[in-house]
Design goal:
206 residues; globular; two-stranded antiparallel ribbon
Length: 206
């Protein structure tokens, strides 16, 4: 009987060591994939799929000083605060990741902001997760020179970002979201965001 108890104890100990080793190995694999550019986030599945734009709703603002909306750091480690709700202009928030394959097209397109065809008075802001979830060196390499990049996991939570890449169009003066959704190409996103703006303005023209 004592022998069986000892054997069972040894078996449980060995099983525990095996599980711990597997978990450690899994963590190393995830870290290696992230360094190689693989994404730990759910990505937009189909390049041909339409962007789903939600109905206008009030902006769920983040907790930040002076009523600002997004607080985080730049890829260089400096603190940054971006006002969105209540701003005098509209803002397109592009939620991207360094390890997202689909995001690469957007990172590249945002290097030429004058060619994006944004409506007059609309600002583009890229939002990534915090340094705990992102490769800072990769974000530094991808970040456009003329587009603000904010590293803020809190913003992802506050804007309920479900996948990457994900886009939110905010009417600043009205402090409301007029369009949001996922897209695989900038042309697709820009077209439907423009449609969302037209739809939001339609009641005012009646």
């Amino acid at each position: 009987m004592t022998v069986l108890v000892v054997i069972e104890g040894v078996a449980i100990l060995l099983l525990g060591l095996l599980v711990a080793g597997l978990l450690r190995s899994h963590a190393e694999i995830l870290r290696s994939l992230h360094e190689l550019g693989a994404s730990p986030y759910e990505e937009t599945p189909d390049a041909g799929a339409p962007v789903e734009l939600g109905a206008p709703r009030r902006v769920k603002t983040t907790t930040a000083p002076d009523g600002e909306d997004i607080v985080g750091t730049t890829p260089d480690g400096d603190g940054i605060v971006v006002g969105v709700a209540g701003a005098a202009h509209d803002t397109v928030l592009a939620f991207l990741s360094s390890g997202c394959t689909t995001c690469l097209e957007f990172w590249d397109a945002f290097r030429r902001p004058t060619e994006l065809g944004l409506p007059t008075g609309t600002r583009l802001v890229v939002v990534t997760k915090d340094i705990e979830h992102e490769s800072v060196s990769a974000i530094q390499a991808l970040a456009p020179d003329d587009v603000p990049v904010v590293m803020s996991s809190q913003a992802w939570d506050d804007y309920d970002v479900p996948v990457v890449p994900y886009f939110v169009l905010v009417d600043g003066p009205a402090a409301r979201i007029v369009g949001q959704g996922a897209g695989a190409t900038w042309e697709q996103v820009a077209s439907l965001m423009g449609q969302a703006l037209d739809d939001a303005d339609a009641p005012q023209r009646k």
